[in-house]
Structure formats: structure tokens, C-alpha cells
Request: fold
Amino acid sequence: MNLPNLKQARLRTTKKVEYLAAANLKSTKYTNKKYYIRTYGCQMNVHDSEEIKGILENLGFIPTTDLEQADIVILNTCSIRENAHDKVFGFLGRLKHLKKNNPNLIICVGGCMPQTDSVANLLKTKYPFVNIVFGTHNINDLGKMILKEDQKQQIEVYSIEGNVYEHMDYVRDSKISAWVNIMYGCDKFCTYCIVPYTRGKQRSRKMEDILEEVTSLKKAGYLEITLLGQNVNAYGKDLDFGYNFATLLENVAKTGIKRIRFVTSHPWDFTDKMIDVIAKYENIMPYIHLPLQSGSSRLLKLMGRRYTKEEYIALYNKIKAHIPNVSITTDIIVGFPNETNEDFEETLEVVNKCKFDGAFTFIYSPREGTPAALIKDTLSKKTKIDRLHQLNELINSYSLAHNQAYLGKTEEVLVLGPSEKGSNKVYGYTKTMKLVNIDGAGEDIGKLILVTITAAKSFSLDGKKVIFTKN
Ligand code: SAH
Ligand code: SF4
Ligand code: F3S
Reply:
């Protein structure tokens, strides 16, 4: 099977990216009006929503979690799979109803979905009650668009990448752990993936700007930062400054912030230098998310992943051998067009070899405009679902085995907040990114504490805080 030639879909104009200071528009027009925001998709969107909250609060809005109370609703959307679209259109149905009772409600749809022409057109023709439509490249304009609001639908979506803005007024969800963008966009063009079309070409932030942000987060009391990018390992490749992700990581480690994490790592750009740096610095957490996507080299080629099954396993083993106690998780897609039984068996084989700590697994979803969407697929839905279940069972058995190995051990945990598992519990993560629910009081939130692991499940651990007594 050959991949359809989709040169056309890959032709995009590239704009010269400028590095600018954000405008941070301020106004009192909406003082004490309430905003409700719903975020779909990946960490990139979660962090974009922190920017959106900053924009709204600069206009005077205050947050609400009660939709009925809202004066403005923002949906920050995701396009990665069809079900992400369905959820947004479902919610828009509810908002249409709400607007009948509250005609002044301002409804905004932003993020990755409007970046696709068909969605932008659909919002224009079928959802005229949506007041403002914006994309991923002009979040910065949202404040201006809201101030201009006069019930006439405004659609402003740019098809080419935007500038890199610095010094944005984020309203961060946590005071303990912060997201730090190190780059925007993606140049990899995996054949199934919409991200390069919704997020544009890769644009790295300058190292000094990233370091300045990390240093000010540390000063503000943050104990953890997560460096964000669709493929952080490719950081700097688009800049002509002679630094790369390993250099950045090393410099971030030297700021002395307690915990450093990063997502996502594409296996193709994973260098030995990166492995050395991760192993060398105590404050770089021994946790790597290393998406496999498929264990079949035939499918990896059709996916445009640029590594074979053997290369992935070799990299995996190298990381395991050099970084003590590292935990590795992955992403796997089942049901790529015409995936054979043999292809799927190879995926299971790689899972059996790597014994991942955990995995996000997905059924392939054709995305309009991507090369893979043009491949005629003969695989039945039932086969895809059966494969997903089989894969999940295997993955969960390894997750459980990994978690059981923690029983009785004492681990350093960064406590992030109250646990959903009970009013006298808090939750946090080990260095290796294991979720731990801990018996204990709220006074530990925001602290690094030692915890003895008392129970292990597939998706979490239970633990007890170690109390030091003087004798
Ligand atoms: N930049 C990251 C992944 C971002 S998207 C990387 O390359 O590793 C997160 C995950 O969604 C991907 O790793 C992939 O497993 C899944 N995904 C992306 N496009 C998909 C599609 N069309 N159908 C199903 N899953 C998809
Ligand atoms: Fe998508 Fe591939 Fe880029 Fe990840 S690396 S965002 S899967 S195109
Ligand atoms: Fe979704 Fe856009 Fe992230 S498509 S996964 S929100 S980059």
C-alpha cells in the first residue's frame, strides 16, 4: 500500500516569525461579569486557557464554574480525533438553549477546531449564535474582539503561524506546578495528525526568555515546571542560535527549580546528550513520555514516524540503561488504515518488550486534510474496538506490575491538592509521575513530602506520609 501523494496538503506559506511583547489589553468594561471556560485537548490547550483567563481577567471578568451564571463562555477546542469535535458541537447545542434565556451571553469558540476551514464555515453557517471565533495563532487578539463585541458574529482565524509573544499575563491553575511553553507548532507531519495544520510550523521561544520565565516562577514559589511542546526534543532546530533541547534542559536545571518535567518527546529527535543531561541533574524528573504509535515498522513508515520498531526498542533500552529508575509511558494508535493482524501483533510484541509504565491508547480517527485520511480503509469498527481492548488489558497489567513494585517503598511526592478519593486525603506525584493518594491534611499541599506506599492499583498508588519524630 502506498500513501496518496498529498504534496498539496503540505504546501503552506511560512511567515517570518517575530518575537514580540504581548499587548495585555486592560479595561474595566466587564468588571465583575463572569466567565466560564471549558478546555478540550492537550496540555498545550490547558496552558492556552491560562492565557485566555489572563486576557479575560484583564477586562474585568471573574471566573465562575456555574454555566448558568456566566456572561461569557469560552470553548477552547481540540481537533485531534472526531470525538473531540462531537463533544464541542454537543456542548454548543446546550449553549444555544441557554442563550434563549440569556440573549446577552457572549459565546466564544477558539483553539484548534476553527483552524480547519470546514469547522470555521460550519460555525458561520450553522452556529450564528456563536459571537466570537478565534484560532490558535491569534489568542492574543481575543481581548480586542471581546471589546468590539456587538452581537454580530466575528470570525478571525489565521491559517499561517503567528508571532511568538512574551510576557503574557497568565492566570495559572496551580501555584505549585506551572506549564512553560518552549515552542509552538510542529514540523513532523505524521500522516494521521492534524496538529501541524492547526498549530502551524515549529517556532521555538528564545532560551533566555524561557529561563527568565522559569526563574520568575521559582521566585514566585513554584516547585515544579513542565516544559511544553508537541516535540520538545526538536527545540531550537528552527532557530539559528546554536542551542538545542539538551542545552535548554541543562540551563533550566541550573536555575535550581525543584522539579523539571517535559512533554512530548518524539523518539526521532531523542539525542544521547539529552539522556546524559536527564541522568545528570537531580531536579530533572526521571519520567519520559515517548510515543510509540505502532509496533509495526510497516505502519510506522506509513505514519511518517521516521523510526522503525527496532530503533524504538533500542532507544527505549538506552534510556532505561542510562537513567536510573526512569519510568516511560507511551501513546499507541490502533486501527490505522488496513492495520493487519500481524501489524497489531507487532504492537503487542513491543509492549511486551518495553513493559511501559502506562499508555494512552486511541482508535485511529481520520482527520480531514491529512494524508492518511485519503487511504481507503477496509478494517471493521469491531476489529478496531477489539484490538483496543486487548491492548488496554496488556498495558494495564504492566502498569499494575510497575505500581506493585512501589509497595513498601518511601517516595518523594509533590502534593498538588485535595484528593478525589476522600476528604482526608491529598494527591501528588512521585518523581516518576505516579499518582499517589495520601492520607493526610491540607497543610501538606504545595510541599515535597516523603510517603510510604501502602497500596498499588493500575492507575494510582495509596500512601502514608512519613512522620519524623525526634528522640
Ligand atoms: N506531539 C505528540 C503527540 C500529540 S497528539 C507526539 O508526536 O508524540 C497526542 C496523541 O494523539 C498522539 O501521540 C497520537 O497517539 C494520538 N493521535 C494523533 N492523531 C490521531 C488520530 N488521527 N487518530 C487517533 N489518534 C491520534
Ligand atoms: Fe502530530 Fe506527529 Fe507532530 Fe506529534 S509529532 S504533533 S503526532 S505531527
Ligand atoms: Fe488537540 Fe490541538 Fe492539542 S488538536 S491535542 S488541542 S494541539
Observations:
- Residues 142 and 354 are 45 Å apart (CA to CA).
- The chain has 13 helices and 21 strands.
